[in-house]
Amino acid sequence: MKNSFLNINFSTLLQVSLVVMCVFLLMKNPKQVYPVSTQKTIETRIQGKETVIKQQGKAIDNSKVIIDELNHGLFDLQAELENVKNSRDTFRITQIQDTMIHVLYRRDKEKDAIIAAQDTIIVAQRYIINSQDTIITSQAFDIKKLKRQRNISFLLNGILTTGLIIK
Predict the structure, then answer these.
(1) How many CB atoms sit inside 10 A of residue 63's CB?
(2) Rounded CA gap, 116 and 39, in Å?
(3) What pLDDT score does 106 carry?
(4) How far is CA 61 from each of CA 10, 55, 56, 70, rounded to the nearest angstrom?
(5) Which residues of 13-40 are buried (b: 16+ CB within 10 A; e: fewer)?
(6) Which of 72, 77, 107, 128 has minimal CB crowding within 10 Å?
(7) Once rounded to an integer, what is the mean pLDDT over residues 154-159?
(8) d(CA 116, CA 123)
(9) What's the pLDDT band for 54 if we cut at 50, 70, 90?
């Protein structure tokens, strides 16, 4: 009789512990192995980078308009220089050449600004791509973790059911 009581008590204890483990696994939140920013934080940062890209795009468009205007002015100066060369007015030729040098210098500065803006856009786009990869990786990890928990839960339910059938 005493031996039967221990078997029932051990069996009940085993069953209760299995139920507790199953409930624990089902209720447990999946945790990341590596610390990763939350998805919402990453999405907020991506939106900030998209805003930077838009602003830099506008700056590039403005610089292109300025460059076009400078090119038109440069063509006008070149035509004027051709006219002045025929009159052999060296003072006026020097003034026009100085103005052309200044216009070319300004055009180069605008092109440098475009290059800097494009570099900023490239960096922001790389950040967005890496952030989206991080989100995808973290979601894949969460899915794997949930599948693992589900499989462990099935295994423990099978053991629990087997224990109940044997009892």
Answers:
(1) 20
(2) 30
(3) 93
(4) 78, 10, 9, 14
(5) eeeeebeeebeebeeeeeeeeeeeeeee
(6) 72
(7) 80
(8) 11
(9) very high
Q: CA end-to-end span of the chain, whole Å? A: 16
Phi, psi (rounded to 5 degrees) for 160:
-60, -45
Six-digit token string for 103: 């216009």
H helix runs in 28-89, sequence order:
39-87
Domain ranges of the chain: 2-166
SS3 (DSSP) at 37:
coil
And the tokens for 115?
């290059």
Q: pTM of the prediction?
A: 0.60
Looking at residue 29, the DSSP 8-state letter turns out to be P
Question: Backbone phi, then psi, for 51, in 5-degree steps?
Answer: -65, -40
Q: What is the mean pLDDT of residues 15-33?
A: 73
Residue 161 one-letter amino acid = T
